[in-house]
Fold:
Amino acid sequence: MSDGGAPALKTTCTTCPYCGVGCGVLATPKPDGTVEIAGDPAHGANLGRLCVKGSALGETVGLEDRLLYPMLHREGVAQRASWDEALAQVAEGFKKTIAEHGPDAVAFYVSGQLLTEDYYVANKLMKGYIGSANIDTNSRLCMSSAVAGHKRAFGEDLVPGCYEDFEEADLVVLVGSNTAWCHPVLFQRLVAAKKARPEMQIVVIDPRHTATCELADLHLPLAPGSDVRLFNGLLAWLHEHGVMDAEFVEAHTEGADKAVALALQTGGSLAHVAKACKLSEEKLRQFYALWARTEKVVTAFSQGVNQSSSGTDKVNAIINCHLYTGRIGKPGATPFSITGQPNAMGGREVGGLANMLAAHLDIASPEHRALVQDFWQSPVIADQQGLKAVDLFEAIHSGKVKAVWIMATNPVVSLPDADRVREALLKCPLVVVSEVMARTDTADLAHVLLPALAWGEKDGSVTNSDRRISRQRAFLPVPGEAKADWWALAEVGKRMSFGESFEFSSAHEIFVEHAALTAYGNAGAGGRGQGMEAVPRMLNLAGLVPLTAEAYDDLQPLQWPVSQVPIPHPPSPIPASRLFSDGRFAHADGRARLLPLLPRDPVNKINDDWPLVLNTGRVRDHWHTMTRTGKSPKLADHTSEPFVEIHPQDAMGWGVQNDRLARVVTAWGSCVVRVRTTSAVARRQLFVPIHWNGTTASDARVGSLVNPVVDPISGEPEFKHTPARIEPFFVQWYGFVLSRQPLNETTLRTLPHLAWWTRVQGTQFIRTEFAGRGEPADWSTWAHQLLGASSDDPDWLDTRDASEGLYRGALIEGECLSACVFLSPRPEDLPARRWLSGLFAQESLSDMDRMSLLAGQAATPGVDAGATICSCFGIGRNPIAAAIREGCATPEALGAKLKCGTNCGSCVPELRQLIALVKAERQ
Amino acid sequence: MKPRLILVGNGMAGVRTLEELLKRAPGQYDITVFGEEPYGNYNRIQLSPVLAGEKTIAQIITHAPEWYAANGIKLLTGDAVVAIDREAKTVTSAKGVTAAYDVLLLATGSKPFVLPVPGKELPGVIAFRDIADVDSMLSASRTYTHAVVIGGGLLGLEAANGLVKRGMTVSVVHLSDIIMERQLDRPAAVLLQRSLESRGIKFLLKAATAELLGETRVEAVRFKDGREVPADLVVMAAGIIPNAALAKASGLECERGIVVDDALRSSDPSIYAVGECAQHRKICYGLVAPLWDQAIVCAEHLAAVSTAAYEGSVVSTKLKVTGIDLFSAGNFQGGEGSEELVFRDPKRGIYKKLVVRDGRLDGAVLVGDTRDGGWYYELIQQKAHVGHWRNKLVFGRSFCEQPLERPGEGPANGGIDGNANAARRLGSTTIERRNPPAPEAQAA
Structure:
């Protein structure tokens, strides 16, 4: 870099690390260390748009709280170690465990946040070298029902459509998808399409009235878990109304008869379906008729479908209807799985699930196993399914799995029955965690902590919901000793003496190997040895195998399959691609399958003890367990606290109050959150967001409440349905702290009288909301402890109203506000946090500011009386000047009007002077 | 012939009563004033700024001899009245002047309380009451070093501050363990003491004076516990005693002071009493505000324009020490049935305590920021309900009330607020709190 002049700003095209829409992002690091973020107009997923989470990425790249060095837990304390030490401990630990207990005694639990290259190496190490399939991913929690449904219907995990289908459709049905909040950019495309063609119909099927419903022509608030009934009913309706693409069904599908027969049996009566789904017959008829008469229909689904004990059946119930009408593989007509994570798809492609092998090949098939082992030239190959997420942690709990490596995910927060997950990890002899943050609920339990590269630092590729491979590129320097996850995996592979199979020196080398595996033995080509049969599959990246390092660096977003080497910079946009346009599916016979589906209720039913249904999900501006979005003040602003939504009438019935705290209890755990009464949730339902965790709240890990019930095929947990009850959580006072430094977590957990807290990042401060019971002997002392005002004589100001139970205090350091605390028995009496937060930007505080600080408001500007003239009555210059202008020409007249000068009289000369000045000013 | 009114005591209370009377009934009486001091009327409260060098005597004279002449009042200065003959309705002065009255107004004020200790007669031992005392202090400060002020009340602290400013080493001796215990609560007193200490004043608390030592002039103060401090000047500021000797001698009903009714009338219907010499409903006031209230009621009766009743005053206190803001009013000690609102900012020397009783403001102590003292005082006097302001009250008026003037309204628009030049002009002579004002001639 040149010395002196400012370096030219360089913009990097990369991909957003949040949801499965997979938007292109332009990132420009600035000399001041900030990063300017913009949408990439050239990216096919977003065409320049970004949602609020994406837009705020620049606020999340700071190095605060980052894990920068390998750490080893020795005698209960995390101590910095070298990579060599840490990797040796991981390799030795895994080797020893395998030697003593076999390969199935170890496991990887990875993440849809990993890049495809990281995923590939993890999968290769586990399945081809360790010889177990114990690698599962947090995609299990959001996508595995879609995977299983796709495989059953199509023969391979394939999303047929593309985002353009949403724009070309005449009807878009969003099932179990709060698209407006969870996939905002795709939603914006839909909004734009609807604006352009108002006749386009949008139907939302969701038990909750979500933000997405604002766009809907029709909202069906179906009973939780009743989706299979609803779509069986649709299939029956289609059959009865003769809405069928008989030619397509005949030529390209199997199983239609059986599927229709069972649909008729379980969904043949509209009245029956309406009752079971708790919908009005009228609405249901309206929906069925609309779907039936609209050729161009997209039925998109998300976690509301997947996260269910009948998730896979729900997926197939939807696909059945599309297959029956031939509405698939055509513009504007397709079932569409919207994925939750940036690289859930990439992970699926390389086989990062315990029931897959690699490259869409099956673990159960000897042919497939032989193909992969042949390609890898590996010593072994896993020959049976490994443990899926929930079972995996259960196996850790029972001691069957004794060593686990967790990467880029936070299962202590996100898994069902999360307290048991925590217990499992506490018992596990070797827990390795690769993280970017120094502290997460999971990282706190690690024996070995490995510092990973974060978004903006790591380099590789991801695949979004419409099969679009995009590069995530590095644009920030590597902090500390952080390393790519693939590097750490490969180093462990080498130390486990798998040597040359893990001699990767770049993400490019890994990607090309992955591409080669997708092409290997595929469709009769791919350079497989003589005498070996081809195993055709649609995932084929043959065109990317010859990529040079430069071409990989320069790779433009593209949808797979990729048969040709892509032109580096195509002159015009490549049209979006669809699968199955030719009616050929991935089953060996080329036909898709319709499945006969028997509706099943959620496993655990509500009853007198557990009368409410707990539903969980995302809020608009947070992501997963908030380890990244929690850093952004902008994002924290929208929903700053964990909450439970409840219908106002239920709230009355259960004795909980809006804005007050409540405990939500299930048979598995409980949490304490703030109550929001809203008719957006139906009667007898509760909604709690998934994001809050042990570092952001005292007691709000909703994962600990969720029943550990899974779909029998996909293994996906039933996050959307856990029987629960709610009860008031009585506290005697509420309060909050705004502080430049986070409050000490141990203090929060141990300080007497604190019963509940949650915290959120603001600009230059952290806000901690809390509530408590009982009263300390002295609030001031208590508040000093809470804020950690430890010096002998801190610059501390406070105000109290003991009878009303009010206390407010502030700690000043230098001239700046360091922290302030507010307490009141009535939460509505606490001042506006937003106004107070502005004081953190001030470099010094005047006496009036200090007063305003504790008042929690600005002084009314006009009330400022100016410099005091009459001290006895506290009359300032401004009202006196005003009175003179209104005609008070003598001190006596002023005294009569304002009382000034009428006590000790010492200001009378000043009054005369002021009278003279005002006169002079008038002349 | 007009009825004759004689005022005994040419001080603030008496002259203010005359002013109020003249407003209501000019020329109704033939007025004569006897004053012991050889001046016109001056503002006794302002002696502290004079001592501190912030004002001159000329600046605190409120009524020069010309005022009396202009109002047809006969003024006799330097001549105290020594006897009243209630039968003959006459008064006799020290210089032998006898004058007849129809109505007599006593405004004889109070006397400093002098500790009955050995040595109290020594030269260098003075009180702080009048211009002569200020002169003594000023001349002592030019010659001597060590001053001891006995009494940590309002007057004592003002004297101490003045003497420190005049270059003396000053110790304040006080019987209680906190200063100004009648006007302040403990935290306020501690804060005040701290800021006075930072100005160089030393404090000897819980110190009972046993003896003043010295041969030809006072040299030291000795306490009951045996401690001694050097003293070239001792200022007795341990309290005041209503000056009721004359009234008592004439047979008027007196207790601590001259007993008056709600019309400020003594036991003799022809004789009124106002100010520090008067005792109303068992209370003798030592502060200025009640004097003004009394003056109005008394004038109403003298002018026979109403039968207004004086029902006592809520007292507020301010300390006239430049740079130290202190205010107290009402029943600020709190206690049973009352509730306290407290604001503390010790690093800025600010302490505020409001006492609320039955939803009404009942008392206030302010240190360091007295901006709102007057407002609180009003609220206390009005017995206003403050419940709706309770969360904000302690922060002051500007947090409780709506703007004084709505912007863009009225003639103010082109004025000080709206006209930059005018504002600058006004700004250039901005009158800071309690700075010595510029001579008035300059401002004209």
Observations:
- Chain A has six domains: 12-60, 71-137+361-559, 144-337, 612-728, 733-859, 863-922.
- The longest helix of chain A spans residues 83-101.
- The CA atoms of residues 849 and 858 of chain A lie 8 Å apart.
- The two ends of chain A are 67 Å apart (CA to CA).
